[in-house]
Structure formats: structure tokens, C-alpha cells
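Fill in residues.
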């Protein structure tokens, strides 16, 4: 089996229950979602769902066909790797020893992240970056004391002049 990871961009009607129908399609067929992000587009009638999933060519094609059959899905596109521009956000609460305060702030700024002090030794750190950069950032943050983490799924657009509205 030749597994590959793909990023799917779905343009959907912006109303109650659409996300549930899309995710139920995945779970009912045993497909996995590695990452999921959803939000309203520039047109309030539509939302964009970004799904990172994986499988062989047959599974990926089946996922796209099944999603396209949903009434609320107006367009679906696989964002090709060479055109992919994807970012995710991570928020991390980090406890920092006073002796390491300056070192911590240098580290945070080296990743172009921001940190806000919550209390004496606790910071809220925010980073918006590629998935790989977020992973590396979290790995390196282990030298401090991580108390809590939350991260979004990836948001993605194709680095091309085409838009999801061009897809028929």
C-alpha cells in the first residue's frame, strides 16, 4: 500500500450540522482525520473546511467522491503539495524558572512567537507556523515546564491564482 497524506479544502454551506455530516462521512467509512479546521469564508454564506487525511490513491479518491456527494459541499479540492501554504496556531502555558527568564524569551523570539506573562513564573506562548515548525517548537519547549497545550488544525490555501470558487 502506498499511503500518502493529503490536504482537502471543502467549500461548504455555512449552516448548522454541516461539519457533523462531513465528519460522520469519515467515521462511518473508517477514514481517519489527522487535522481539521473550519471557519467562515469572505462570503458569510460559506465556510471552508480544511482536512488533512491519509490513505492510498483509491481511498483518497473515495473520500473526495463521497464528500462531493454531500448536498452542503459546494466544492472540494486537493491542495497539491507544491502549492500548499498551511499554518496552524499553538498556545502553550509554560512555567519558567526565574533563572531562565531571559533565555526563555530569547528562545520564544527565535521562533517568531510571542509570550505574555500570566503570573510570576507562568507564560502563555503563541506561535503561528507550519506544522513542522510547531512540532519542533513544542519539542524544544520541553526544556521548560509545559503545563498545557492546545493547537488548531492546519488552515491551508493553494499558492496559485485559482480559488475554490473556480472548481465545478
Amino acid at each position: 500500500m502506498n499511503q500518502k497524506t493529503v490536504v482537502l479544502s471543502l467549500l461548504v454551506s455555512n449552516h448548522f450540522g454541516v461539519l457533523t455530516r462531513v465528519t460522520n462521512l469519515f467515521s462511518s467509512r473508517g477514514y481517519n482525520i489527522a487535522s481539521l479546521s473550519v471557519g467562515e469564508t469572505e462570503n458569510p454564506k460559506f465556510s471552508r473546511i480544511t482536512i488533512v487525511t491519509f490513505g492510498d490513491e483509491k481511498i483518497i479518491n473515495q473520500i473526495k467522491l463521497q464528500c462531493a456527494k454531500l448536498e452542503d459541499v459546494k466544492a472540494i479540492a486537493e491542495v497539491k503539495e507544491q502549492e500548499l501554504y498551511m499554518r496552524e496556531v499553538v498556545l502553550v502555558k509554560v512555567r519558567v524558572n526565574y533563572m531562565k527568564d531571559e533565555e526563555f524569551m530569547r528562545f520564544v523570539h527565535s521562533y517568531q512567537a510571542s509570550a505574555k506573562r500570566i503570573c510570576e513564573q507562568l507564560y502563555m506562548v503563541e506561535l503561528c507556523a507550519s506544522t513542522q515548525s510547531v512540532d519542533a517548537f513544542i519539542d524544544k519547549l520541553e526544556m521548560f515546564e509545559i503545563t498545557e497545550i492546545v493547537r488548531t488544525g492546519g488552515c491551508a490555501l493553494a499558492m496559485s491564482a485559482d480559488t475554490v470558487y473556480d472548481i465545478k
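Residues 57-69 form the longest helix (13 residues).
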